Amino acid sequence: MFKIIGVKHDSNGEIISYKLDNNKIIDKKEAVKFAEEGKIDGVIIGVSKNGEKFLKNMPDGNKFNNLDNMQEI
Protein backbone atom coordinates (compact mmCIF):
# COMPACT_ATOMS: atom_id res chain seq x y z
CA MET A 1 0.00 0.00 0.00
CA PHE A 2 1.24 3.48 -0.87
CA LYS A 3 1.07 6.73 1.05
CA ILE A 4 0.86 10.18 -0.55
CA ILE A 5 3.77 12.39 0.54
CA GLY A 6 3.39 15.37 -1.82
CA VAL A 7 1.09 17.01 -4.34
CA LYS A 8 1.23 19.33 -7.34
CA HIS A 9 -1.39 22.04 -7.89
CA ASP A 10 -2.35 23.71 -11.15
CA SER A 11 -2.77 27.49 -11.48
CA ASN A 12 -6.36 27.21 -10.16
CA GLY A 13 -5.27 25.42 -6.98
CA GLU A 14 -6.52 22.00 -8.11
CA ILE A 15 -4.33 19.01 -7.29
CA ILE A 16 -3.18 17.50 -10.58
CA SER A 17 -0.60 14.94 -9.42
CA TYR A 18 0.58 13.10 -6.35
CA LYS A 19 3.95 11.88 -5.12
CA LEU A 20 3.87 8.47 -3.46
CA ASP A 21 6.19 7.21 -0.74
CA ASN A 22 8.08 5.17 -3.36
CA ASN A 23 8.90 8.56 -5.05
CA LYS A 24 6.69 7.79 -8.05
CA ILE A 25 4.59 10.71 -9.28
CA ILE A 26 1.14 9.84 -10.62
CA ASP A 27 -1.58 12.00 -12.15
CA LYS A 28 -5.05 12.43 -10.68
CA LYS A 29 -6.65 9.80 -12.91
CA GLU A 30 -4.08 7.15 -11.95
CA ALA A 31 -4.34 8.14 -8.27
CA VAL A 32 -8.11 7.63 -8.33
CA LYS A 33 -7.61 4.22 -9.96
CA PHE A 34 -5.05 3.24 -7.30
CA ALA A 35 -7.43 4.39 -4.54
CA GLU A 36 -10.32 2.41 -6.06
CA GLU A 37 -8.05 -0.64 -5.99
CA GLY A 38 -7.16 0.00 -2.32
CA LYS A 39 -3.53 0.81 -3.11
CA ILE A 40 -3.36 4.25 -1.39
CA ASP A 41 -3.61 4.54 2.37
CA GLY A 42 -5.62 7.26 4.11
CA VAL A 43 -7.77 8.51 1.23
CA ILE A 44 -11.31 8.20 -0.02
CA ILE A 45 -12.78 9.11 -3.40
CA GLY A 46 -14.94 12.18 -3.75
CA VAL A 47 -16.98 13.26 -6.75
CA SER A 48 -17.11 16.90 -7.86
CA LYS A 49 -20.27 18.69 -9.00
CA ASN A 50 -19.31 17.97 -12.62
CA GLY A 51 -18.91 14.25 -11.89
CA GLU A 52 -15.11 14.14 -11.80
CA LYS A 53 -13.57 11.79 -9.23
CA PHE A 54 -10.83 13.06 -6.93
CA LEU A 55 -9.01 12.01 -3.77
CA LYS A 56 -9.91 13.25 -0.29
CA ASN A 57 -8.27 12.53 3.04
CA MET A 58 -10.11 10.29 5.41
CA PRO A 59 -11.36 12.67 8.12
CA ASP A 60 -9.11 12.45 11.19
CA GLY A 61 -9.33 15.95 12.66
CA ASN A 62 -5.71 16.77 11.72
CA LYS A 63 -5.63 19.63 9.19
CA PHE A 64 -1.86 19.28 8.75
CA ASN A 65 -2.10 16.00 6.84
CA ASN A 66 -4.79 17.22 4.42
CA LEU A 67 -3.80 16.73 0.80
CA ASP A 68 -3.93 20.49 0.11
CA ASN A 69 -1.45 21.08 2.94
CA MET A 70 1.12 18.54 1.78
CA GLN A 71 4.51 19.45 0.39
CA GLU A 72 4.36 20.82 -3.16
CA ILE A 73 6.26 18.74 -5.71
Account of the protein in words:
This is DUF3892 domain-containing protein. This protein has 73 residues and is mainly beta. The protein has one domain. It is 12% helix and 34% strand. The protein contains 1 helix and 5 strands. The strands form 2 sheets. Strands 1-2-3 form a 3-stranded antiparallel β-sheet. A two-stranded antiparallel sheet has the order 4-5. A hairpin with a 5-residue loop joins strand 4 and strand 5. It is globular, with a radius of gyration of 11 Å. The chain starts with a strand and ends in a 16-residue tail after the last strand. The model has no long low-confidence stretch (mean pLDDT 93).
The amount of beta strand, in percent, is 25-35%
Q: Strands across the major sheet, in which order?
A: 1-2-3
Count of structural domains:
1
Low-pLDDT residue intervals, each spanning 5 or more residues: none
Helix and strand content put the structural class at mainly beta
Number of strands: 5
Radius of gyration, taken over Cα atoms and rounded to an integer in Å: 11 Å
Please give a handful of descriptors for the protein shown.
single chain; 73 residues; mainly beta; 1 helix; 5 strands; 12% helix
TL;DR?
The chain is built from 1 helix and 5 strands, in the order βββαββ. It has 73 residues and is mainly beta. The strands form 2 sheets. Strands 1-2-3 form a 3-stranded antiparallel β-sheet.
Write the layout of secondary structure elements.
Layout: E1 4-9, E2 15-20, E3 25-27, H1 28-36, E4 43-47, E5 53-57
Antiparallel strand pairs: 1-2, 2-3, 4-5
